[in-house]
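Ex. 9. Protein: Penicillin binding protein 2B.
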Amino acid sequence: MSLKNKRQIDKREWQYNRKHFGIGVFFIVGLIFVVFISRFFYIGIYKNVNGVNLPKKAAQLYATKTEVKAQRGTIYDADNQPIAEDTSTYSIYIILSKKAVAFGKREYLADKDKDRAARVLSKNLPINYERVKKILNPVDKDTYQVELSNAGKNISLETKKKIAAAGITGINFKESQARLYPNGIFASHIVGIAENESGKMVGVMGLEKAFNSDLTGVNGVRSFEKDIHGTPIPGKKIKTQKAKDGDNVYTTIDSRLQTYLETLMTQAQNKYHAASSNAILMNAHTGEIVAASQRPTFNAQTKDGIDQVWRNTLAEDSYEPGSTMKVLTMSAAIDSGVYNSSSTFKSGTYKIDGKTIDDWDTNGWGYITYRDAFVRSSNVGMAHLEQAMGSKVWLKYIKRFGLLKSTGSAMPNEASGSIEYKYPIDQANTAYGQGVTVTGLQMMQAFSAIANGGKMVKPQIVKKVVNPNNGKVILKNGTDVVGQPIKKETANKVLEMMQDVVYDKNGTGSAFKIDGYRIGVKTGTAQIGNSSGTGYLTGNTNYIFSVVGMAPATNPKYILYVTMKQPSTMGSGTSGQMLASIFNPVMKRALEEDKETTTSTPQIKVTDVVGKSTTAAKMKLSGAGLFVTTIGNGNKIIAQSVSKNSVLLSGERIIILTNGEKTMPDISGWSRSDVLKLASLLGIKFNISGAGYVSSQSVATNKSLSGVETVNVQLK
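Predicted structure tokens for Penicillin binding protein 2B:
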């Protein structure tokens, strides 16, 4: 075959192959096109790709969900005033980087503003000017933003507004949920605290912890569709799932008595410097704890002092009660029938199995009756009564009085107590409060049997728990009678002996007399075990001094129990005088308030006294049961802090303004609410800082308010 013919054949083959290749490519492309078109049709019809719903996915891209925060429940006092509630706090951060520019606007702190910023921040925060200046001028010039450490955290709304009012660009605030404890040092270990953990408030102590699940709410959700600029699309429905706020807890605490108790406890602590002290005031009939505190304590708002003791010592600490236990010993002896009013014994010392029991006066008082043993607080007399009862009977009464087991109060980690009861000497020791440990709550429960005609009531700190979303009562605590360890006749006889402790010439409780009221008490002095556990500490102040009192003695409504451990500065005073500095004022205040509430109308409708003479207005308002504060020396009333027909509780404050020269009243001890009413009435700005009650004022009492524009007030 010639070369020419061969070339022609190759050309035809190439053209043939090219033609078929083209046809193949055409069909492949066509097939791919068909597949794509089919896929598009499938997607268009079914709107689903790999199990993903496209319309739903698109909606999600343009949908925004916002969490609606639920409020943590509020804890209230007995007058339904908040003692723990939700609030917001703020943290400061300052942008320094000159790159922080958005939409042509500067968002950083300019160099020219740094000095002014330092002055504003140091004026309103616990940090000095030089420290702020140093922070605002870091060594690393590329620093984007800075913070002010702890000084710039947990700032109140009030402080935030003051700083923001300066209008300094670059100073920014981050909001976070927090807990407000408006009364500062106020039953702090009972109420407890809640802390922000990962954006959620969690109770870590006291009622905040015990009722955490009740107090915690359920967050809601708010959702809507937005355009590419993030603006809600008109006409699109906004869906909202409402937040469910946490339940509210209502306590039995009387704020006025609690505040007074806190003041007295602090004064006693500053004077006697005890290692620890407790005080509990309880309604004997209902078991409601109306005031209770401990030292050391802490300010729940600022957390100042919280590192001293974390425990609620009223419930968590067990200790040997000492001679206050003799109230229970005498009750058991009378109730079991072994007490004989005419029987006598030799006081001073008493040997059991070779071990000696001593009276506080080891010389004794010769042969005395068992009534005298109680009045004089004789250990020997109580040991004789325990021996007469027998260890089994006495232990039965110990358990009947609710000792050696938790009271089941709302307080977390309540201790049960313990007892050394193996040998006769151990059994005798418990009769005067050694070798047995108790908690404050257990003793209050046991004492209630004597004050309440033999019926023993459980201590209560929470009245009810209410769901604020629907008003439903989740929990309601009424009077809980948990036993009747003794007969009514027994209780009455012991009450008579407790009065003898105060009014008999040989009684150990003469320091606890209160003018106008009949009181029954029992004092106590308990030894403290040493660290080795084999004996007791020695020294004049290495004791737990205590007193339990009931009043009015003929039909007690209140039981007050005060303990003070290892006071270091008793001086020349007695333990009775030391305890009386707390006991007497608190018991008297409780009895006087009780008298007021039972003889006057609890709620008072306010009368309009504007235009009346000052004398007539004061008589009208105070006669109705209100606490009247008069501003100015004029003879006519021109304004009043509470409007006509408003309802106040008996004893609440009302401020009246006269037409005379306005002078500054003494506002120490006033609440924030009363200070704000005064500010509104005077038309003067009051700068209020702190929490609790007024401790200082920048304008002196009785000073003219003419020309005064602002008054600074510190709460504690």
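Check your answer against this statement. Residues 603-715 form a domain with the Trypsin Inhibitor V; Chain A fold (CATH 3.30.10.20).
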